[in-house]
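Deliverable D2.4 — example input (structure tokens):
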């Protein structure tokens, strides 16, 4: 097996990006770029190249794939205990955070419809929503937790949307 080639962008010493495909002979296909004079490039240099080609920052280029990502804060918003417990997660990498759509509508990318949670808090909130929609009888304990969470987030009008979706499903 061939050793991973190095990124050939001047000043970069990372390994080349594996494209996930293989050549006809079965060897790994490493990413090549015009930005490195046709040489191998790492994933970061590849992204930087494409962002500069469009005349935008790397962050703006990446946010183009995830339009709600620009709303992500640098901390878990459950530090105010809006889910019924205070989050104590130590965020050491931005990938530990997720943007949550409060009204559970992934197409609603309004600024007021987003909150940032660590993955544990996001999974907990998602499970609450699933429990709410799992039965044709409204689970009052789950509903109370969700209403409390929405009130603390300052977005308690959203609870009408969630309740409306439940009624549409089961009424």
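Example output (designed residues):
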């Amino acid at each position: 097996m061939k050793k991973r080639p190095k990124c050939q962008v001047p000043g970069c010493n990372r390994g080349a990006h594996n494209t996930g495909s293989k050549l006809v002979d079965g060897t790994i296909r490493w990413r090549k770029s015009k930005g490195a004079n046709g040489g191998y490039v790492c994933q970061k240099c590849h992204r930087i190249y494409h962002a500069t080609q469009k005349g935008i920052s790397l962050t703006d280029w990446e946010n183009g794939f995830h339009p709600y990502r620009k709303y992500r804060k640098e901390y878990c918003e459950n530090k105010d205990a809006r889910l019924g417990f205070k989050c104590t997660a130590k965020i050491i990498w931005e990938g530990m955070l997720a943007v949550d759509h409060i009204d559970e509508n992934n197409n609603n990318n309004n600024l007021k419809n987003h909150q940032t949670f660590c993955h544990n808090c996001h999974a907990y909130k998602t499970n609450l929503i699933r429990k709410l929609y799992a039965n044709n009888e409204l689970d009052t304990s789950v509903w109370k937790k969700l209403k409390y969470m929405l009130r603390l987030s300052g977005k308690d009008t959203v609870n009408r949307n969630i309740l409306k979706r439940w009624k549409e499903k089961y009424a």
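The beta strands are 18-22, 28-30, 97-101, 114-118.
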